[in-house]
Structures are given as C-alpha cells and as structure tokens.
C-alpha cells in the first residue's frame, strides 16, 4: 500500500509534459502567394533579355527562329522519309550497303524508345487528350511544345552546327523550361512542402519545395542559352549593367540567387513515410548517391569552370561546340526529369525505369569526357581554382564558399593572369 501511495504521489507531483506543437499547415491562400524568388527570377531574366539585346531586335530574333524551325522540321521530314525508304528496301530484299544496315538499326534503336517514353506512352495515357488533359492545360501543352522544341534544337545542332551556334532557338527551349517550372509551382499547390524531394523514391509524392527549387536551375539554363550565344554575350559585356548581371551569374549564383529558393538535401532523400518500397531501397540509395556525385561534378566543372572559360574568352571553336552540346543536354535534363517523375506518379511508366532514364540522361554528359579532359587540362591554373571551389563545397560552409567566390571574381575579373 505504501509503495502504491508513493507512486501515486510521484505521479501527482510530476511536472506535466506539454504536448508537442503541431506543425502549422499552410492554407491554399498562403500557398497561392507568390514568393520573392519568382520576382527575382523574373527580374533577372528580363535583365538578361534586355542587356543581351534579345528583346530590342525582335525582327532579327523572329527571323532566326523561323529559319531554325523551318530548316529543322524539313531535316526531320527528309531523314524520316529516307529511313522509311531504307527500311522498305531492306524488307524487300534489295541490295543495300552494310553501313545502311547500321544506320537503320542505330536510328530505330534511338528514335523508337525516345518517342515511346516522351510522346507515345504519355499520349496513350491521355496526358494531352481525354479527361486527364482537362486540368492545367497550359502546363500540359507547353510541356508538349517543349518536347518538340527540344527535338528541333538537337536536329539543328547535329545537322547544321554553323547555323545552330548563331541561332536564338535554344533560348526559347530554356525559356519554355522556366515557364514550365514556374507554372508547375503555381499550379500544383496541393503538393506537400517536404524536405524529402520525393523524386528519389518509387512511391513518394514530389515535394513542392523540389518544384520550387527547380526554378533556380531553369533560370541558370536561361542564362546559359544567352551566354553561349556569341552575339548575346558580346552585348551583355558591352554595358556596365550587363557586366553586373554577368558577374552575378558567373561568380555569385549560389550566394545571391540560390538562397532565395528552398533546398532539398540528398541526405533527406527517401525519408518520407512509406516513400520507398523496401525491395527497392538499395536501388534508390545507390541511384541517389550517383546523382549526388554527378551534381558535385556538374556544379563546379560543368558549371563554374565552363562559365569561367567563356568569361575569360579563352575557348576555341571546338570548345564552344562541346559547351553548346552539353548545354542542350543540361536544358533537357532539368525539364525532362520532372516530366519523368510525372510519368512515374501517374503510373504511365514503371518507377525504376523513369529513375534509371534520369540517371542515364545526366551521365550522358560523360560521353564528352575525352574532350572535356582536354579543355580542363588546357588551363591548369583555372582548373586548380575550380578544384578549390569543389573542396570548399565539401566543407558545407557557406562562408568559405563565399570567400572562394570573392577570390575567384578578383582573380578572373581584376587581374592580368595568363590563364
């Protein structure tokens, strides 16, 4: 009895534990508010369009776009008819050159899977037709337009590079990607605001933070589309205000711009409740690490380093061809990655297939490693500067990264070092 009494007294005298505060949920009204990041991205893109003289010479731009679309469409039609005739000749037993067999097999091996994944399967699932297409029509059809633009841009680049390097068409691809990312953020307000991106899983819903974050990378592709155009870059450098915009993008994007956008860290990938199937845990863990490694490599050597070379004007014509090709890969990756997740979420394609396609897409840049190695080793001092930034990033110190940005800006922008 005494023991029971003492226990009762202890319980009564104990300080009551306050219930854990509930996480405040955002109302749809709160989610409808436009964040500062969108105003900033819109302002900076407007500055780019103005200082690169893209919007002050609309007739030249429109003529360039018309020429690119007409030529690329004609090339695709011509190649398709040629391939049809070749396949017909092979099927009817006509004599064809061995190279023609290789051409037919490689063409079909590339075209058929790409068409099925990006156009065929979504079309069959009603992404642009039927009941599914009744909501978010602008977002859906602008996405379809992006696929068409992207195909035309690659066609022009592969078949007529001399024309492609001076074309304004890649800018429309990047701008459409930015529009897509922004419309996704504004349209899909019901997405959860989670630290887990939701992308690196087979069942998790995409986080709205991840969609918001993607706008930053789309904005960077818009800059690349203009900066890698010789005429636009020269116009940007011709004014003081243009040079300020250039310095922001070249040296300070992760200090002055990135901080306005949310961050979904790789360490939180797959942390959502029941976001990953237990059977696929290892698959997604390995895939996430592969993406993380690629991101670090791409951020500094495909991002900062390439931009430094262009900023200093020490690139050759062959270097620029490589840079523009990798840019096209990147502008597609940033947008198509989200579309692949949509296909997974809508159960149009299997989750592991869409995730594997994304990894394959980002690692496609490694096809250029032999050329990239030459570009990197041609400027060892600049490579050392980039490597220093890479090492600073590993410390996860924003202050140290800021110091690196300041030192790099001084060395590249205000000294006469022979790089």
TrEMBL record:
Listed transmembrane segments: 38-56, 101-121, 141-159, 171-191, 211-228, 240-257, 293-316, 322-343, 355-373
Q: Where is this region: Disordered?
A: 1-30
Query: Keywords, A to Z?
Result: Membrane, Transmembrane, Transmembrane helix
The protein here is known as Uncharacterized protein
């Amino acid at each position: 009895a005494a023991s029971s009494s003492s226990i009762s007294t202890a319980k009564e005298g104990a300080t009551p534990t306050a219930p854990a505060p509930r996480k405040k949920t955002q109302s749809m009204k709160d989610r409808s508010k436009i964040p500062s990041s969108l105003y900033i991205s819109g302002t900076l893109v407007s500055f780019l369009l103005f200082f690169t003289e893209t919007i002050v010479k609309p007739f030249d731009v429109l003529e360039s776009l018309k020429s690119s679309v007409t030529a690329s469409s004609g090339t695709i039609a011509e190649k398709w008819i040629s391939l049809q005739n070749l396949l017909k000749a092979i099927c009817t037993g006509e004599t064809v050159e061995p190279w023609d067999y290789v051409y037919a097999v490689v063409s079909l091996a590339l075209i058929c899977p790409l068409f099925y994944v990006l156009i065929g399967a979504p079309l069959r699932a009603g992404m642009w037709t039927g009941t599914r297409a009744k909501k978010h029509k602008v977002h859906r059809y602008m996405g379809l337009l992006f696929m068409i633009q992207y195909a035309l841009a690659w066609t022009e680049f592969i078949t007529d590079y001399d024309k492609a390097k001076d074309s304004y068409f890649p800018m429309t691809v990047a701008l459409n990607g930015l529009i897509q990312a922004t419309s996704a953020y504004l349209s899909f307000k019901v997405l959860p605001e989670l630290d887990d991106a939701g992308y690196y899983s087979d069942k998790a819903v995409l986080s709205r933070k991840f969609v918001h974050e993607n706008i930053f990378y789309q904005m960077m592709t818009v800059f690349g589309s203009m900066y890698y155009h010789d005429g636009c870059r020269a116009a940007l450098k011709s004014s003081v205000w243009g040079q300020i915009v250039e310095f922001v993008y070249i040296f300070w994007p992760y200090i002055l711009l990135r901080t306005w956008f949310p961050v979904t860290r790789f360490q939180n990938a797959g942390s959502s409740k029941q976001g990953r199937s237990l059977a696929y845990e290892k698959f997604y863990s390995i895939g996430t690490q592969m993406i993380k490694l690629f991101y670090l490599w791409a951020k500094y050597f495909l991002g900062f380093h390439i931009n430094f070379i262009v900023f200093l004007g020490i690139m050759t014509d062959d270097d620029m061809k490589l840079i523009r090709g990798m840019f096209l890969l990147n502008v597609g990756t940033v947008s198509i990655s989200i579309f692949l997740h949509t296909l997974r979420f809508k159960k149009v394609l299997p989750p592991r297939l869409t995730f594997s396609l994304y990894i394959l897409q980002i690692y496609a840049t490694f096809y250029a490693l032999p050329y990239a190695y030459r570009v990197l080793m041609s400027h060892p001092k600049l490579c050392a500067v980039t490597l220093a930034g890479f090492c600073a990033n590993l410390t996860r110190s924003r202050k140290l990264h800021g110091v690196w940005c300041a030192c790099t800006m001084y060395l590249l922008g205000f000294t006469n070092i022979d790089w």
